[in-house]
Every structure is written in structure tokens, then in C-alpha cells.
Amino acid sequence: MTVLSNIATYVSLLVIFGVSDPGEKHTGPSDLPIFRYVSLSVVGVGSLFSLLFHVFTKERENPQFSVQQCVINEASDMIEKPHLTWKDWFSQPQFYMVALLYMSTRLYVNLSQVYMPMYIEDTLGLHKTKIATIPLVIFVSGFLSSFIVKFMRKLFGIKWTYFLGSMLALSSCIWIFVGEGESYGNYQLYGVAVLIGVAGSTLLIISLAFTSDLIANSTTSGAFVFGSMSFVDKLANGVAVVIIQQIYPC
User: Fold this and answer.
1) The pLDDT value given to residue 236
2) If you average pLDDT over residues 61-85, what whole number do you get?
3) Given this model, what pLDDT does residue 72 score?
4) Which residues, 6+ apart, have CB-to-CB distance to 238 below 8 Å?
5) Separation in Å, CA 92 to CA 84, 89, 97, 111
6) Distance CA 228, CA 214 (A)
7) Architecture of domain 87-249 in CATH?
8) In the chain, at which end, N or C, are there fewer CB atoms within 10 A of the end residue's CB?
9) pTM of the predicted model as reported, rounded to 2 decimal places
10) How many Å apart are CA 129 and CA 86, to the nearest integer?
């Protein structure tokens, strides 16, 4: 649903840019109402559906699954594999390895989203409609590729699938580094967008699978693990943006 909401946002932005002044190539103060209306629409629709979810969604207890059965199943799981508390994770080397993996994935996905509009307008000097079409291609290709990641994992395994996603991500970075000319801005950039979308979707799905496999039966501390991954991800992205802005200010 997150991907679909992002696609809807960029589609609406593309439509509004299409009916606005076609003679104005770059975004400026005159485009402020466009971004305001899109932002208010996104917040309004999101708030409406969030309200509808909380009002009309009712939680039901499963009569075939009692509390006693939960206790029995949990006890049997503890026999197979010990449960880890939130303190125990700090002594697990795999906890730091998966955190580094998830952080690297989020750095690639988030930074490509943040700097793509500025890359399109400031570096390539393309028309402002491209700041909607290129991210739209990224999200659509990522959404479509998410359906085949499951089969890739069964076919190649989780590690080789992540390696394949990493190679696609590296290929997109190399293409951006060497890309130049009118052909690159008008046509090849869409190929770069497809690579970024497929690579980002593959890496993100597999990194979440790594996290779930890491938690295994330690579901009581699963929230701490996912929270730690998210904290490291946000911290690393903030530091990366500060460093990039110091080296190449936008």
C-alpha cells in the first residue's frame, strides 16, 4: 500500500504539472500552489482512510485458537530455540551484521529518492515534469518487481538474491556516473529509473527477510529489533545527507 500511495502521489503531481504552464521549464515560486495542493490532498486522503480503518475495522478473537494453545505453542518453541530478550541482542554478532545490511539498503533507497529531483533539474536541466515521471517509473518498476522476488529467493536463495539486487544497484550508479548527452536525459534516464526501482525493491524485501529470519522465535523482542534497524537507518541517512551537503551543496 505504501508503494501504491507513492504512485498515486506522483501521478497526481504529473497531471497537475501537465495542465500548468508548459512554457515554464523549471520549478519555482509559481509552482508553490501545486505542491501545496498535492501535499494537502495526500494528507487529507491519508487521514480519511486512517479514520475509516479505525472506525470500521473490528478485531475478532479466533474461537479455534485459545490462550492456552498460545502458551503451549510458545513453550514448545522455547524448547526448539531459546527466546532472546532485548538485552541479549547486543551480544549477538548477527544483530549488527543485519543492521549494517538494512542500513546500507535504506541508504541506497532513500538517498536516490531524495536527490533524484535535484539531479533531474539542477544537474541535467530537464523539464520539471521529469521530477514526477522518473520517480513514478522507479516506484512502478519496484512494485512490479516485488512479485518476482519471492520466486527469485526460492530459485537462488536469499543471499544470492540480495547479491543480484546489489549488482543492479551498482549498475544504476555506474550508469548515472557515465551518463551524459541529450540521449541520456531523454531516454536512458528511464532505464536508470527501472534499475533503481528493481534494485531498491529487491534489496528492501530481502533485507526485511533477513531481519525476520534473525528474530525467528524471539517474537517478544521483535519490536526492539525492528526499532533498532529503523533507528540506525534514520541516523545513517541523516549523517549521509549532512556529508553530501557539505561536499556538494544543493
Assistant:
1) 94
2) 52
3) 40
4) none
5) 10, 5, 9, 29
6) 13
7) Up-down Bundle (1.20)
8) N
9) 0.80
10) 47
- pLDDT (tens digit, 9 = 90+) per residue, 9-21? 777 777 776 655 5
Domain limits of the chain?
1-59, 87-249
Question: Tell me, what DSSP letter sits at residue 124?
Answer: S
User: In whole angstroms, what is the distance from residue 35 CA to residue 4 CA?
Assistant: 19
| Grid coordinates given for 165 | 539486487
- How many helices (H) and strands (E) would you count in the chain? 9, 0
Using CA atoms, how far apart are residues 10 and 135, in angstroms rounded to an integer?
7
Within 8 A by CB and 6+ apart from 161, the residues are 149, 152, 153, 202, 206
216 vs 75 pLDDT, higher one: 216
- Render pLDDT for 2-49 as a digit per residue (tens, 0 to 9): 777 777 777 777 777 665 555 566 777 777 887 888 888 888 888 888
Q: Find where cell 536512458 sits.
A: 188
